[in-house]
Amino acid sequence: YEVVRELGAEEVRWFYREDRKSWKPFIGYDSLRIELAYRALLLPDDQGSSSPTTGRPEKLAPSSSIPTPEPVCVRGGLYEVDVANSDCYPVYWNQSEKIPVMRGQWFIDGTWQPLEEEESNLIEEEHLRCFKGQQMQNFDTNVSKPIDRKEGKIYYRKFADTLLVMMVITFAGHLILN
């Protein structure tokens, strides 16, 4: 069984939203390169010990002493992603509106659309706080009753007005998110 730990760069997915309706995933290679640039922005020159799950770096001010990271070339070289400002723009033509990008760690069941980044970061922090270092076990997602009718610990955390995440630890050590 796997041990709960911070997500590796290859486990995080990046998305863009051109039509303002749904988030579309970048291909794996692009997503990985964006994530590596994001992590480099969080830890410039390997200084500090911040976690990539603690949130997005503040958007850089023009007078900031921190050097702006190089844009990440994506979508076949037609676009670049500015990780510091969370947007994407075409390389070869002018476009008035920049395309928003978002880091995905937690997703909506059934649609695989990413939760908003702030909420996702809060959930990931809480998940790591409760379960880091523990072994994950396989479980049947269709099980609606606790195993062996034994109740487990229930953790509730309200993250926003409309988002309530419930983490349930059953007797067998399973995690169920609703």
CATH architecture of the largest domain: 2-Layer Sandwich
What is the name of the CATH class of the largest domain? Alpha Beta
Q: What count of domains describes the coordinates? A: 2
The structural class is alpha+beta
List the strand order in the largest sheet: 2-1-6-5-4-3
Q: What is the overall shape?
A: globular
Low-confidence stretches: 58-63, 143-150, 152-156, 168-178
Question: H/E order of the elements?
Answer: EEHEEEEHEEE
Strand content range: 15-25%
Mean pLDDT: 77
Task: Characterize the main sheet.
Answer: 6 strands, antiparallel
| Count of DSSP strands | 9
Indicate the CATH topology of the largest domain: Signal recognition particle alu RNA binding heterodimer, srp9/1
Helix content: 10-25%
**Radius of gyration, taken over Cα atoms and rounded to an integer in Å:** 19 Å
Give a short overview.
This protein is α+β, with helices and mostly antiparallel strands and 178 residues long. It has helices at residues 28-42, 117-131, and strands at 13-16, 24-25, 72-74, 79-82, 87-90, 99-104, 153-158, 164-169, 175-177. Helices cover 17% and strands 21% of the residues.
